Request: fold
Amino acid sequence: MRQNFDVKGGPQLGRRNLPKLRDAMKAQGLDGFYIPHEDEYQNEYLPASNDRLTWATGFTGSAGAAMVLLDKAVIFADGRYTLQVRDQTDPALIDVEGLPDPGPFGWLAQQSLAGKTFGYDPRLMTPNEFTKLEAAATKAGVSLKSVDTNPIDAAWDDRPAEPLAPVVPQPLKHAGVDAADKRDTIAKALEKDGADATIITSPASVAWAFNIRGGDVACSPLPLSRAIINKDGSADLFMDPRKASEELRTHLGNTVTLRPIDELESAIASLSGKTISLDPALASAWFFKQVEDAGAKILRQPDPVLLPKACKNATEIAGTEAAHIRDGAALTRFLHWLDTEAQSGEVTEIDAALKLESFREDLGNLNDISFETISGAGPHGALPHYRVSSASNLKLERGTLYLVDSGGQYLDGTTDVTRTVPIGDASDDMKRHYTLVLQGHIALAVVRFPKGTTGTHLDALARYPLWQAGLDYDHGTGHGVGVYLGVHEGPQRIAKAWNSIALQPGMIVSNEPGYYREGEYGIRIENLQYVTEAADIPGGERKMLGFQCLTWAPLARDLIVQDMLSPAEHEWVDQYHAEVLEKIGPLVDGEVSAWLKAACAPL
Reply:
């Protein structure tokens, strides 16, 4: 079992730990302290030793922040976590506000706190974020103090140990490009930009640039590490030496010096007089200060690994396609199980999550799940990032919808797929809402767009059918996905919020519109797809890009209102199901095979 269903977080953590935190704040002369969700590595998913926001408040969401004062505390969470944050925090101790509006900085700017001192940990904030904090503090009359020791760390007397998972090579047959060649490409870009070196602070970027993987972060094969890559292609890789084997040292070769992580600060201090590339959206404010104190010049620019990592090479795409077909067979077995045994009304959310995990385990090459399965029955499906626990576990009751969002980590690819299915008979509203979501999904699957288009330009396509019905959803429509790396990967995304990164061939994105009726049910349909050069359009005057689907598993035919579909949408559903049958059919047999043929029959 790769996931557990213990109760995580909860109001008892805030009750127990806020007094400890305030004592530590007083000892440092602080009237307030800012707590972001992110850790030193700007991770989305955190090792237990770095989950400071949960420790202080009880909130376990993957995005959020808190402002803790000596006499009050405020937590900020977005629309995905509106209900969860209220369940997991004590309203007598912690006020709940929205993210991004007003957000922690907007909230602070509205306060009158003249003469107060607020602390912040520069290791946990990028310079971009610090600039916002500084502007808000000025408006509130607050003075800011950078802390050398985070007061949470000082107060956290039972803090888990830092992870020490082994770091291993990612074979060339999966990576597609030799690590030395990757770093040479980065080095040439540095030299062109007038930089002597770059400090790579993101573990995902380090993993890609050195063709290595680890296990320090749950569900993501990340090694907690940093690197300095020089313009001649040589590099220093900083990590705990206990994670390194002789195989790893041989893999890294003579141009990479493996150094203990505690030598990073002295290595930065030796960069005096050089020009260093740093990403103000990824590297923490601590790095910027260290480089400035070293007497080096900072070149502010995006992490040079981000775009090459996002634009998958042919080997990565082929591996990802293969991983998705295998994963699709496991998911198809699960969907058959849902349509047969799970229709009893006695199966629970945990039963279902474990059953799906077992089907993936049966493949024999599952390294991990790519995130904790979202297994939402009935009203829990209306919580986009719901996590089932032993305390919340519901049965999949007849007359309801069941939403399952899950994925696997394989050496050749990372999967992420969502399906919504009926348990028993669905209502007319359920079917209508499912069909609206499906129409948005189709629109984003078939769109053709010119070079230079960003995900922000495309986001409205997936929402349009819902908007015309007076509906919407409070999350992004698509996120990037790595190859045996993070299931959430930038810099590209499809969302209302502005994204300046143009979609380019090889980029993988999710396509996941949804609809959520609070207290009743949720609907989401998610496939992964990657950007390709599109076939010429007759009469067209410009080259276009498009998407190629990666995810293959049946949709819920019983939830589709055929009369709502246009002829083109009708054709898309039939064509998609024909491809599902072609790709997945040979991998299943018996009852599952017969079920799949029926599930994929033309509408």
Remarks:
- The mean pLDDT is 96.
- The first helix runs from residue 11 to 27.
- The chain has 19 helices and 28 strands.
